[in-house]
Amino acid sequence: MEAASPETVGSDRPEPVLLTEPAEGVPPVVDTPSALRAAAEALAAGTGPVAVDTERASGYRYSQRAYLVQLRRDGAGTVLVDPIALRGDLSPLVPALADTEWVLHAASQDLPCLAELDLRPAKLFDTELAGRLAGFERVSLGALVERMLGYRLEKGHGAADWSRRPLPEDWLVYAALDVELLVALRDAMHDELVQQGKLAWALEEFEAVRTAEPAPPRDEPWRRTSGIHRVRNPRQLAAVRALWQTRDKFARERDLAPGRVLPDSSIVQAAQANPKTEADLVALPVFGGRQQRRRASMWLQALRSARRLSDDELPAPSTPNDGPPPTNRWADRDPDAAARLAAARAALAEIAERHRLPVENLLLPDLVRRTCWTPPEDRSLASVTALLREKGAREWQLELTAEAITNALQATAG
User: Fold this and answer.
1) In this structure, what CATH number is given to the domain that contains residue 68?
2) What pTM was estimated for this model as a whole?
3) Are strands 47-55 and 68-74 parallel, antiparallel or unpaired?
4) Burial of residue 266, with CB atoms counted within 10 A of its CB: 0-12 exposed, 13-18 middle, 19 or more buried
5) What is the rounded CA–CA span in Å between residue 102 and residue 113?
6) What is the pLDDT of residues 368-399, one digit of tens each?
7) Where a domain ends, among 278, 313, 348?
8) Tell me, what DSSP letter sits at residue 68?
9) Do 183 and 283 reside in the same domain of the chain?
């Protein structure tokens, strides 16, 4: 399958070719140990990078496990692996893919569930991140395939319940198409990055994604309940916490997405209404449904436990924050810090525009805020560079931004 020529990638390029099925058809799903061993041997005998993708069931299941793993490599074709049928044992793939560059789109979304299967790349190319660094406004897989290769992918099942078995044929077509052109896209994006002089930057970014440590669990994840800002007092916050924790335990034990057990909006509504009886509870929207009526005693018990707490046991109105305050308060609390942040943002916006980069990829906004709020004591270029590096800035980012950040910090130095 040939890519569209570079001359057709502009605004006058021809209509993209709709790709509705894989060129070699949809392979049978690998769901037995013997089939997995055969697939691993074929992949090991292939050449070049291997395209990798996964399908999860985030909106349906509590876990973020992979329910399908798609792979494609020249000489091996496409492989669709069912990790559920194989009880999570994909060990034959480990040596087959060792020392091979993996090509993923938005790799940070897939790497955690692949790591659960002991599948970890030794080298990574992220086509979505490559598109961001190339300065493209649209970086979805479909948008990049259309722009760089001249094909339009048949889409439509990304948000499906991939825990379903057997998987429908049209879903398998969709899954196979996600890796059909991924290596070709990798090659096109590689050439684009070389042309723009950004390949070295991209390689640093890919390695940072590949080696990133898992984010630590949040101290109080219940505070992310949607609509919690409408809860006005600690007693109601305790009710939100109790309902959230009860829902989380129930959802985890049954591997259900928490939002399918009870919507966030219903948690907030119950915390505000504070129903005392089952009749009061089921009178609330959602709680009157058949499933929620069966669970009414569970939700009531959570609410009663919150009411029994002493004042000392109630949650604080807000979580402690080790970072700077919201930026809209800087002007009042520290005008010099506000001036530093304004200068830094202006400088970074100019650098990002000059190099056709999203400013958030140039330097993480949170890192900029923290540096401007609490700068190094001497505000020297060496100190600023060391601080940014310590907080995770890559070398290419330091080369572009360290001096500009230093100048912004020095602008308000006493």
Assistant:
1) 3.30.420.10
2) 0.91
3) antiparallel
4) buried
5) 15
6) 999 999 999 999 999 999 999 999 999 999 99
7) 313
8) E
9) no
Averaged pLDDT of the chain? 94
Compute the distance between CA of residue 65 and CA of residue 159 in angstroms, rounded to an integer.
Answer: 14
Structural domain for 307, as ranges: 221-313
Number of domains present in the structure of the chain: 3
SS3 103: strand
- How many helices, marked H, and strands, marked E, lie in the chain? 20, 7
Q: What is the pLDDT of residue 332?
A: 95
CA distances from 299 to 235, 266, 286, 343 (A): 16, 11, 12, 51
Alpha helices in 150-295 (DSSP H): 169-180, 182-196, 199-211, 234-254, 258-261, 264-273, 278-282, 290-294
Q: Is residue 233 domain-shared with residue 162, that is, in the same domain?
A: no
Same domain, 82 and 174: yes
Which of residues 211, 242, 263 is at a domain's end?
211
- pLDDT of residue 14 exceeding 90, the answer is no
Same domain, 131 and 178: yes
User: DSSP letter at 160?
Assistant: S
In sequence order, the 6+-apart residues with CB closer than 8 A to the CB of 337 are: 324, 330, 372, 373, 412
Q: Residue 322: inside a domain, yes or no?
A: no
Neighbours of 109 (CB within 10 A): 15
